[in-house]
Amino acid sequence: MNIAVLIKQVPVSNDVSVDPETHSLVRASSEGMINPADLNAIEEAMILKEQTEGKVVVFTMGPPEAEKALRDAMALGCDESVLLSDRCLGGADTIATAKPLARAIEKYGKFDLILSGALSSDGATGQVGAMVAEYLDIPHISEISAVQYDGADTIRAVKKYQGEEVVMEAELPALMTVCFGCNEPRLATLRTKRAAKNKPLETYTNAELQFDAEEIGIKGSPTIVTDSFSPERTRRAVMMTGTPEEMAAKIKELIEIEKGKN
Amino acid sequence: MKKKRIGIIGGGISGTCLGYHLSLYDDAEIIVFEKNTIGGASTAKSAGTVCLFDDSLKNRYWDVRLYGFESYLKMEAEEKGSAGFDKTGTLVVATNKEVESVIKTGIALAKAAGYTGEYITDKERIKEILPDINTDNILGAGYTEDDGYFDGTMISNTYAKKLQANGGTVKTGVEVTEVKVVDNKIKGLKTSEGIDYEFDVVVDCTGPWSKITGDMVGVDVPIWHTKAEAFFLCPPGKKLGYTFPVLKYPEFYALRAGDNIFICKSHLSMDLNNPMHAGQWDPDKLPATGGTDDYFIDFLLDQLDEKVPGIVDSGLVSSWLSYRAEPKDFWPVLGETTIEGYMVATGYGGNGVIEAPAASRDLAKLIMKGESTPLLENWAFSRLVEK
Amino acid sequence: MANGICVFAEHYNGNIETVVAELVSAAHFIKETTAEKIMAVVVSQDCETLIGQMGRLDVDEIYAVKTESDCAFQDDALSSVIADMIREIDPSSVLVPATITGRSVFSRVAAKLGCGLTADCTELLVGTRENGSYYIKQNKPSFGENVFVTIVTKEGCYPQMMTVRPGVYTPYEAKEEKVPEVKYLDIKAPASKVKVVEKRPAASNADSILAAEIVVVGGRGTEEEESFKLLKSFADSLDAAIGGTRPLVDTGFIPFEHQIGQTGYTIRPRICVSFGVSGAIQHTEGIKDTKLMIAVNKDEEAPIFNIADYGIVGDLNEILAKYLEK
Prior knowledge:
heterotrimer, B: alpha+beta, FAD/NAD(P)-binding domain, D-Amino Acid Oxidase, Chain A, domain 2, 9-stranded mixed beta sheet, 6-stranded mixed beta sheet, 27% strand, globular, C: alpha/beta, Rossmann fold, 2 domains, 5-stranded parallel beta sheet, elongated
């Protein structure tokens, strides 16, 4: 089974603020890492690879520095990688991100399964996976916590939903988005890190992807960010006082409210 | 009694330890300014190894080492966990004659102070202590079971509590924005709260930020940054069946962190002329985790393959990068500067946890009594000023 | 010309989700300025029951498609039906619950329609263009909750489609029942390539601090055996995993796998309740992206209060004991 994994490089720290004058983002650090849930997707891919043979190709779209995320993924066992990088792809919303990813997957080869993390730790839209599935015209199952494959032309997945586990089956090829924490991602070692430097990495620019300028990047994005601002509520806690009994009741109430939000 | 007003910039190990030692004087009025959290920046990334006879500090400064070690033992005895002591013992590996002789002298000093220590040449015994080691190409190893590593953040917070108990003040989340100097003499400082403070003495305890801090008063603090690149490794079997000691080689050191192993390039292996090792960077841009260079992976892989092959295939759990503040000669910078009343306690270069207690003890004496000590003279700011 | 505010009437097990009434509140707010109709779309085997539950939402029109089978979880088929419905209704905006189903189905709808989909909005405001036309300012958090951004669907691009976070708007409830105009659309669901095989009760996640939705974190203040027992009972009552900082791991009450912080794991639970954690950097670096974080500590200056949503200064033993009494 050949598997494509879609990953995103996210900032190590969400410590980002907004310059009150220019409204541009001020990042505490520019360090990037693989989005945490994508590590769980890679782990699922590795488990399936060990079970079925075949190769795992990891895709990301981003600036040239996103190569680091691909190298890290290959240090975890992914065999090959593709970096979609072109200035004209920049500033894309989820639609204009999913389109090039879908085309890159089609161009690279035939895949039985496509995996991605369910949500990113920065934007957290949870959309790109399902959109890629739509552009590829294949079924998808989102936000799953386990995959089971028995060699047939279908694949099963478990989705946690409102206190239940729903077992589903999708016809291959299919796409699944994997929840953070659903497995324990393996770790790279010094040796696999070094080996990853020599694994294949292809870069796709729009010369390979062949989109019209209106289809991609800012131009191809139906939505645009017009402003950014710091939240009024800072992370400084709302302090509560009272008797132990009152505080115990308050804790209970707060947890109940959050749980009720589905 | 007119009190001496002292403002300390920086709430890491340097600032809190100095604040504590000053708070022992009745006529000291102390405020520590920390822009973030106590012991939360480079101190938090310190390995906290305060060992009886490793290579971190020359035997010439045995009293500095012993005073630091015993200060923390006392702290830990007063309240368990307050210095974060993990008594794992230390294994210092001799790869050449020179290192061997330094270790042997260190062991003699430790024993004279009442601690255990031995120089082992029986390679089977070395392997009993650290089964994953390769004993080829080594001469022997010094070992004691009495020491280990401490937690710099815990120590800083304990010092901060102690100095507050003694009447001092600690302000966290407050950044010093201006240091006021009139006629080449310190007047006070201004903070991000918008408050003006008057001080007789201001001490820069900002470590890697010292250049930036010095710029506020026009003092050029001659420090460079060297990179402390560290990894947390998860051993191949997830759990080691033995207590991993503090392990010291001239090139790197390692210690346990829970079931993981922390490993870091040693500071004396840094080359100030190598741009991969040293430079002037912005410590505010340091990420909490990550940031290590590729060369470090190659370096460590080669080192571990040769020296501790049993853990070379460990999983990389996380990594971090920290900046050490180093003057050209790798010794700290303490005491008076060219501005009257502006002092420094910086440049510990990754040895802050070891050196701060003795250095602060002496610096407090200088500030409060005007009396210098041999240690302060050796580590004086003036040694670095071009004549 | 696109017109109308359309709300997706998400349902499960025969019930309209509460969040739908919340979105209707947002729709009424938009209507105050734009004076557009509010519409709801519902796709189900049993539309009548669901429509019956929407009597107090004060929506003007309900568009319904009756399917031959239960399409729950068949996001490929559902998205096809809904895309066709939206093409026919031609609303100016579509409000979707930011739920597992909402974002999954409407991501496909957005791709089919070539319109955008703004995720997880916490505030919707109406703006006016120079030509007098209205648009929706879609405010959403980013980078955890550290930044809020305003997203706008480009002029001429309809519908403006967005998911709205549950729990932000108060559910709408009109004083009187009103029967909205119901229009059944003749749209057929295509065959889905996904099917539900089985539903079973979810297993507990409490043994994994990474997978658990709720994590209870103990610090130095829970080192005593009595305190830890209380912490454990509290965690059990919530089916929560227990994480700890180094002092707690050093006691041996919890394994190293449950150590949180720079030397241990980074956890991202939805809910985190910490007891006796001071919040030095090694610990707080290990807890990220929580939706609710409550911290209990006896020291009101503890840095943990800088990252928590709610802080309680008090004795954790007393509070836990009272909590468990009930």
